[in-house]
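#struct-pred
JK: can someone run the complex with zinc ion? inputs below
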Amino acid sequence: MPFQMKYEIIPRYLPGPSKRRPMLPLARCRFMVAHDTGNPGATASANVSYFQRTSNDMSSSAHIFVDDNEILECIPFLTGPAEKAYHVVYNVTTDNARYGADANDAAGAVELCHGGRIRLTESYKRYVWVMAYACYRYGLNPSTDIAGHYMLDPARRSDPQQPLRQLGKTFSDFVRDVEEEYRASVIPEPQILISAEDANKMIRFLSASYFAVNDASAQAEFHRLANELRRISGQPAQ
Ligand SMILES: [Zn+2]
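RT: done, structure tokens with the ligand placed:
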């Protein structure tokens, strides 16, 4: 089942191996962590540029930054083979209790950019969509497999509650929005109504008719009908 790619995810990878991007493979993505940058007014691009400039200064990072214009991936996660990002300290235990693993070893990290000139509702739409897409890509359940950073490290973190509050939303509202986006974006498999074999037999008749007429509009119609038969028999259009 394909997923509707409403937005582009732009890769802008940090240099690696570096402290922020050690280039270690993320063996398996078990859950997602929702963050916000805590840096009002800084765009996705500004955040990634800052990480690029400081790639060897410290080990903290995230996979994706989202603002009202762009979804930038600075550590491969959805645009390339997934690598680890360091976004939740190792010595907290909620991630282990809930998902059986440390976030840094088993989760994708998405940062919501907000504040200043960033249009929060637009940022939020992209944030919800990219979370839904990540759940789809890694076979996660949006209702149980998304944690807020504040849930994993309540003593030190509150993200992404502040921008959510600005939108009048709770974290549960956010999860519900992701569930809804997920449902709306998964494109169901075409229903197969006849076998490919039967369809191809009929297509051969249409093809004979196509070559028997000299009229372009009649030919276009035979072509359309052949593709309809391909569609309902689960074959690609030609
Ligand atoms: Zn965070």
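RT: quick notes.
Residues 35, 149, 157, 159 surround zinc ion (CB under 6 Å).
The two ends are 20 Å apart (CA to CA).
JK: thanks, will look after standup
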